[in-house]
Amino acid sequence: MSDRSADEAGPYRRVLANAEARGLLVAQGASEVGDQVARVAIALLVLERTDSAFYAALALAVAYLPGIAGVAVLGSLADRYPRRALLLRCDLGRAVVIGLLAVLALLDSPLWAIFGLLFLNELLVAPFGAARASLYPEVLPDPSTYVAAQGLSRTIHLATQVLGAIVGAAVVGLIGVPMALALDALTFLVSFAIIRARVQPRPVADVPGTSLRRLVGDLGDGARELLGDPVRRALALLGWGSALFLVAPEAVALAYRPGLPEVVGGALLAAVPAGSAVGAFLLPRVPLREQVRLLLPLAAASCLPLFATSVDPPPAVAAALWFLAGLLQAYVLTVIAVITVVTSRARRGRVLGVASSGFSAATALSFALVGWLATLPSVGPARAVSLAGAAGLVMVAVLRALWPTEALDRLF
């Protein structure tokens, strides 16, 4: 390996040399595979029962609904309770809920009951994600190493979406939804065991304990801090706006063609996350200052492959276009990292909670809207994705006029 290659790989080696960071990354992979397989399994179950692209997309949207309010309100739990303990309790809770989902699917229960348990499972994701994201800067205080860890974390997050989509669709085809969900429940027990063994206990970040009044107060504090700062506000708006077109291909993937085989649908569903995983792995090799300068150009470029879907390409070509869009969407990593780095330890959970809730709201809206557009005879799945790409270009143009370039340059 050349000296230059060694320097580029250095931050990754430092991340993986840290036992706690390794534990967090491996546990994340286990739990997020479970999350994604559960979402795909439920979406396929709904598509099988209703034969509706809209209801299948709605099933995926339900997975993001708790993040709208749940992360914003519950994110502060990562500030008010020891973060390791919070991770462990959320993993146990999700193992129980997914186990119950497997039973309901086996009993041919009504869809509203299945959606309700899926909603509860995703509600537990909120404090788990806030606690894990808030822990990384404590485990890895050096900024360059932390950003590299975020790159690996983002890559794992997206790679598990790829594996979850492809493996989930294949497993459901082989053993059915109930058994697939039962296997999912085990992934959370694996995550629990890894975190318990690898991550060290730490004191609570802020005044301990919570109540409804404190949760509401923390929500207001987080929103004021995020939106009152020009830099974090601009980054949050970019992240939230991007979500409106980021997930458009995933909203229509399973119903892109009538009678599409499950594995092909799973591959289409995985195309954007696969590209984003590669981009998230490569982007930390670029200095953070340059990453910040590339935010808007990458956002605009990522819309172009989505817009090209308007020609209604065959599934293989659509997958390639969506992979490229995902690759260019790596800038989301920079958005997350910068917001986290500039936020104090004591308030990190609530600020990240508000930021994540806006992203989840935009994601759920995109799933529902693009899924609905795909059902219109005059639009269809391919044109629905292209409309999302066009809307993304408009969003970037608006943000360009409001971008705090000087403030960002002073920070980095």
Describe the structure.
Helix 2 (19-50) runs antiparallel to helix 3. The protein is 83% helix and 0% strand. The protein has one domain: Growth Hormone, Chain: A (Up-down Bundle). By secondary structure, it is mainly alpha-helical. It has helices spanning 3-17, 19-50, 53-62, 65-74, 77-80, 83-106, 111-139, 143-198, 212-228, 230-246, 248-252, 262-282, 288-293, 295-308, 315-328, 331-341, 348-375, 380-402, 405-411. Mean pLDDT is 84; it is low at 1-9.
List keywords for this structure.
single chain, 412 residues, mainly alpha, Growth Hormone, Chain: A, disordered N terminus
Please specify the SSE layout and strand pairing.
Blueprint: H1 3-17, H2 19-50, H3 53-62, H4 65-74, H5 77-80, H6 83-106, H7 111-139, H8 143-198, H9 212-228, H10 230-246, H11 248-252, H12 262-282, H13 288-293, H14 295-308, H15 315-328, H16 331-341, H17 348-375, H18 380-402, H19 405-411
Helix pairs in contact: 1-8, 2-3, 2-7, 2-8, 3-17, 4-7, 4-17, 6-7, 6-8, 7-17, 8-12, 8-16, 9-10, 9-17, 10-14, 10-16, 10-17, 10-18, 12-15, 14-15, 14-18, 17-18
So what's the CATH class?
Answer: Mainly Alpha
Distance between the termini: 30 Å
Q: Provide the residue-averaged pLDDT.
A: 84
> What is the count of β-strands?
0
CATH topology: Growth Hormone, Chain: A
The CATH H-level superfamily is MFS general substrate transporter like domains
Number of H- or I-type helical stretches? 19
The CATH architecture can be given as Up-down Bundle
Helical amount: over 70%
Structural class: mainly alpha
Largest sheet: none
Radius of gyration: 20 Å
Task: Spell out the helices and strands N to C.
Answer: HHHHHHHHHHHHHHHHHHH
Q: What share of residues are in beta strands?
A: under 5%
What is the domain tally?
1
Q: Any idea what the shape is?
A: globular
